[in-house]
Amino acid sequence: MEAALYLHVPFCRRKCPYCDFYSVTVPPEEDLYLRALLKEARLWREHLPEGLVFVTFYAGGGTPSLLSPDFYGRLLEGLAGILRLHPEELTLEANPEGLTLERLSGYRRVGFNRLSLGLQSLSRKGLQALGRAHTVEEALRSVEAARAAGFENLSLDFIFGWPGQSLADLEQELAEVSRLSPEHLSYYELTPEEGTPLYQALRRGSLRLPEEDLLVEMHRLLHERLEDTGFRHYEISNYARPGRECRHNLFYWKARPYLGLGPAGASFLGRQRFRNPEDLGRYLEALRAAKLPAILEETLSQEAAFREAIVLNLRLSEGVNREEFRSRFGEDPFEVFAEEIEELRRKGLLEIQGGRFRLTFRGRLLANQVQLKFL
Ligand code: SF4
Predict the structure, then answer these.
(1) Which ligand 1 atom sits closest to the C-alpha of 20?
(2) Measured between alpha carbons, how far is 348 from 260 in angstroms, rounded to an integer?
(3) Which residue lies with its CA nearest to atom 4 of ligand 1?
(4) pLDDT for 144-198, tens place per residue?
(5) Which domains does the chain have, with CATH numbers?
(6) pTM confidence score
(7) I need a labelling partner for 349 at 20 to 30 A (CA). Which of 16, 62, 252, 365 fits?
């Protein structure tokens, strides 16, 4: 059975004001972290379903590019001796600051064949509003360096809907993006997460997000412009050239198995969901005591797994495939949810195409509400 392997790198130079991903701003101790990860993988080996083969590897974070190519070389070699690791897609998330050609060539050499660059914006105004550590020039240089280092599968990450952004700002950015010609794009709407400095600034009223109508226009512009320039809008926030969809993330969206190493790493195996503590100290402590840091969060019943798979599949533009669900769960989603599907179709939020149902453009804007109907 195929599975995805995720590594959480819990280090950042500094915290961005909108971010609620787990990371700490201490300098990474590579040897210590490497030993802990290999120990974690060895402990997991006893618990993994038989025959699991990891076909993707994804280093996310945090800021994975704070760790050296040598770290990843040793990690991948170590993991290959512990797990059945035959990755066809190896992704590294990277931030533009400090990303030299030499460092990128090193990542390429140790096996990464996909780079996901966290540019977030291509305007000074945008980078400032998002509190990012890099400049527009560094962002552009990092794309050039990635190509020079031999990355032929490049994803660029952006955020839209930041305070002060206009439709013209987004149009200008999209023109620049088209010039950079990446294989994959992520465009996330800025969401204020409770507890972040951004959230507090919005509550205080010292910052304001764009109005609802403008956000809808931004969604529309992204969808139309990117589809016109050869991208396929394959997931709510993701666009790819044909065949360049992120294989790793498809494991999440299709509710397929994955293992997450490192603090805050999440795993989904069989019908069980595990999560590592969001605390580097506790994570390392558990491993020092030769214990798996993962906590079993939930064991899904057959019905809950069926519902959850529908909710996740709805994120994809291919939607929910009747035959796939019948053979996987022995149940027909069109029959189980006949009423809900009809109601959502009447409201223009779902459309039916052959043996599938999927979100419409409006449905994507209200995805959370649609998904609730299936839970
Ligand atoms: S957005 Fe990225 S770089 Fe900024 S704090 Fe979060 S994980 Fe770190």
Answers:
(1) 6
(2) 37
(3) 16
(4) 999 999 999 999 999 999 999 999 999 999 999 999 999 999 999 999 999 999 9
(5) 2-253 (3.20.20.70), 316-372 (1.10.10)
(6) 0.96
(7) 252
